């Protein structure tokens, strides 16, 4: 019998290796109940995870009638529109949509953006304590950087950044059915906003991916108006939310591991290697989207029935001792690093190069500007959002000089409670 784990609990997010090791003892595929989704099978090994992600014939994101695996009958149509994106599509629709934006995310195009990404990171690092100390690194830095980058890539107005931040905070706050209904209201506003931006691009043209999507539409490309809305939503949300928590989680690990931090600061050419380990160890995306089992099948020795749902646990694949020595330990020099944080198969993350460069620029800019950066509170006072499937630090109060005594003022208490 698999242990009944609460995948949104503080204990789980504070020490994932311990919880994952306990879960894996029950087998490579275990039955569980996941918040909002319901009863699912969960993979606990790298091998089982890879098998599900690579097998698009037996494990599909859609039912036979075309409905998305995670949607419920009571969800409004605008949610279905947003959910109807390439992350929830099987072949051939997945390739049709991905090919439209694939060029913008190729390595050459993303590497060309690196100087601009570093400039944004440098500016944000300079302004980190502009509103006072301590500063919440999540809101003042980790959230703004990827939102600024993806907004520029899409061609969205800089003046709308506060709106994106508010929406991102709403999405991070998803913990249960009640918060899901709050999220529905934000989804409706986001859809209306994106429809307006697409219409503006149709009339006035412009720069960025939104203008390019409109050009594809104008030239008779195979994309519908609803698919354009869902594409922009996906790029805006997925292109910022997960990287936010990769950056904040990486900073947290460096601040509580001074020796590891010193090793990295001695030679910033190591930052690419370090980011790969943070991707594995922090694992901001803990689970994949649910998939349907299309026929009775055996997965890692476990019999699954047609119609069952399965979710791969990327965090468990990243902690599999069959793939990594001492997986419970943070090792920035780890080689090789076979993490699964970007998935595998046809749904391998489109933005993997962008996320890597953003994280590398964010870490170097931050610690070069603030070499004595420290936590404003004990690490035991850092908490994670109760968001299922996403490992997201709620607030990360930092001070400019770790040599100073940690502040116990009402400012810190207000920051954590606010």
Write structural notes for this entry.
It is a single chain. The protein has 418 residues and is of the alpha+beta class. The protein is built from 19 helices and ten strands. It has helices at residues 10-14, 16-24, 46-54, 77-83, 93-101, 107-112, 114-126, 137-142, 144-154, 161-172, 177-204, 209-218, 225-238, 241-255, 258-265, 271-282, 314-318, 352-369, 410-417; strands at 29-34, 38-43, 59-60, 135-136, 291-293, 297-299, 302-304, 309-312, 374-375, 397-399. The protein has a five-stranded mixed sheet with strand order 1-2-8-5-3. Strands 4-10-9 form a three-stranded antiparallel sheet. Helix 11 crosses helix 12 (209-218) and helix 16 packs across helix 18.
Order of SSEs, N→C? HHEEHEHHHHEHHHHHHHHHEEEEHHEEH
Sheet with the most strands, sense and barrel status: 5 strands, mixed
Enumerate how many helices there are, as a single number: 19
How many strand elements? 10
Unreliable runs: none
Give the amount of beta strand, in percent.
5-15%
What percent of residues adopt helix (DSSP H or I)?
40-55%
C-alpha Rg, in Å? 21 Å
Integer average pLDDT: 86
Which shape, going by the Cα principal axes? globular
Terminal-residue CA separation: 40 Å
User: Which structural category do the helix and sheet elements fall into?
Assistant: alpha+beta
Q: Strands of the biggest beta sheet: in what spatial order?
A: 1-2-8-5-3
């Amino acid at each position: 019998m698999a242990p009944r784990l609460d995948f949104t609990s503080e204990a789980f997010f504070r020490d994932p290796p311990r919880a994952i090791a306990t879960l894996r003892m029950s087998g490579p595929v275990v039955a569980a109940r996941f918040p909002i989704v319901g009863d699912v099978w969960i993979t606990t090994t790298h091998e089982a995870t890879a098998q599900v992600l690579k097998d698009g014939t037996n494990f599909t994101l859609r039912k036979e009638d075309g409905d998305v695996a995670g949607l419920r009958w009571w969800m409004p149509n605008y949610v279905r529109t947003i959910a109807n994106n390439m992350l929830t599509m099987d072949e051939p629709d997945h390739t049709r949509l991905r090919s439209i934006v694939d060029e913008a995310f190729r390595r050459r195009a993303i590497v060309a953006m690196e100087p601009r990404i570093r400039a944004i990171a440098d500016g944000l690092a300079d302004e980190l304590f502009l509103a006072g100390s301590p500063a919440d690194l999540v809101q003042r830095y980790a959230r703004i950087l990827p939102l600024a980058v993806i907004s520029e890539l899409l061609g969205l107005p800089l003046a709308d950044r506060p709106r994106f931040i508010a929406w991102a905070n709403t999405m991070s706050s998803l913990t249960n059915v009640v918060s899901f209904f709050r999220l529905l209201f934000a989804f409706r506003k986001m859809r209306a906003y994106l429809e307006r931006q697409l219409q503006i691009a149709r009339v006035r043209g412009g720069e960025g991916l939104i203008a390019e999507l409109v050009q594809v539409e104008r030239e008779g490309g195979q994309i519908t108006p609803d698919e354009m809305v869902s594409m922009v939503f996906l790029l805006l949300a997925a292109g910022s939310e997960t990287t936010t928590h990769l950056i904040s989680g990486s900073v947290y690990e460096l601040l509580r591991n001074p020796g590891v931090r010193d090793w990295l600061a001695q030679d910033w050419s190591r930052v690419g290697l370090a980011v790969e380990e943070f991707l594995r160890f922090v694992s901001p995306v803990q689970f994949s989207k649910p998939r349907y089992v299309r026929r009775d099948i055996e997965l890692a020795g476990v019999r699954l029935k047609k119609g069952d749902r399965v979710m791969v646990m990327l965090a468990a694949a990243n902690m599999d001792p069959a793939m990594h020595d001492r997986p419970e330990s943070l090792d920035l020099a780890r080689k090789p690093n076979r993490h699964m944080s970007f998935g595998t198969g046809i749904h391998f993350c489109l933005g993997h190069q962008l996320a890597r460069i953003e994280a590398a620029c964010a870490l170097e800019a931050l610690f070069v500007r603030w070499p004595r950066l420290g936590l404003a509170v004990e690490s035991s006072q850092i908490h994670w959002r109760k968001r299922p499937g996403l490992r997201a630090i709620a607030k990360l109060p930092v001070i400019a000089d770790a040599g100073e005594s940690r502040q116990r003022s009402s400012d810190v208490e207000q920051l954590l409670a606010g």
